[in-house]
User: What shape does this take?
Amino acid sequence: MAVGLDDVVAAETVLSHVDGQAGRLVLRGFDLEALAGRRSYEEVLALLWDGFAPAGDVAGGLGRARAAAFAILAPKLPALDGLGPVEAVRAGLALLADRVEVPHHLLATAATAVVAAAASRRGAGKTPVAPDPSLGHAADFLRMLRGEPATAAHVRALDTYLVTIADHGLNASTFAARVIASTRAGLLSAVVGGICALKGPLHGGAPGPVLDMLDAIGGPERIEPWLIAALDHGDRLMGFGHRVYRVRDPRADVLKRVVMDLRGESNRIRFAEAVEAAAIRLLAQRKQGRGLDTNVEFYTALLLEALALPRDLFTAVFAVGRVGGWAAHVLEQEQSRRIIRPQSAYVGPLPQRAA
Ligand code: ACO
Assistant: This one.
């Protein structure tokens, strides 16, 4: 029995394909590299949602949905004070009633960005900023977060990030969302489930700890001893390893290029590269034949840091991009009439029979 459902095929999808041997990610017939940096997040959402949601102007619809989400949720934001950003997103989406008459794939995607930005500002003692529906999603997210327009370079970098992480096969959060969708609970409930699964440190919670690791290592001379001590202690090195990839995660290279475009050859990048090289070498020694390599979260951490986003916001920003993929999977799942209901193997005691 595969305890972690390794290699179990639990859904058919036209949305994305992860080739773990080749290190390739295909989104609706396009290699990731053909989309990231070349198509906007909204264009990729239109691609993912094509055939599952009514065709239309995704950028305009998403802008209007941000305004609607802000109108509904702004009065309720004080109730989220004291929560971390990803907890606030979880709670904020849970406050949306199923009866709201905004298409739910747009509303969920919009609300994730609106709540992440607003909760982060309130946490810093600042007033939330209302959306500007005329802006692109990445530009408006940065503006809602910072209270001022972002530079074109920052918008481009965040947009490429959102595209890069928009969808990725049947990862844990997408699977969770599809299970909920299969019960016909509705898209908003399914997306809340996706966020709950994403926030764990083994999934979307890894980028903050990646930076914590770099900080804890401190300098080049401490890389090797620090990593050895962590592995001896049985710790996981954040930003490395993947259930499906046996080679380097292709998203890591896409995001590394974006970081380099933003920061150039900085000391930070050189240090991170040295940590990465040592980690891969040590993991290869310790887990021979497993092919543990860099995953998406390592360069996500460096990219979000280069955008000067607060570290505790990283997982919520992951959700800002991935929610579009969850919505696509939920819409696809809703076309299936069959509930997802696997079996468990009972290994507990049986009742004693009367003699
Ligand atoms: N550091 C140290 N050891 C590791 C790591 C790591 N990053 N990744 C895997 N291993 C170990 C496992 O503990 C296991 O050891 P064992 O055989 O002694 O039990 C062995 O390598 C093989 O593990 P896998 O089967 O390859 O790992 P699995 O598929 O169960 O887990 C996961 C995948 C959760 C991503 C894991 O690699 C991990 O915890 N990585 C660190 C956290 C991280 O970066 N998460 C983000 C992933 S990307 C994403 O979700 C968006």
About this structure: The first helix runs from residue 32 to 35. The domain at 14-203+312-333 is CATH 1.10.580.10 (Citrate Synthase; domain 1). The mean pLDDT is 96.
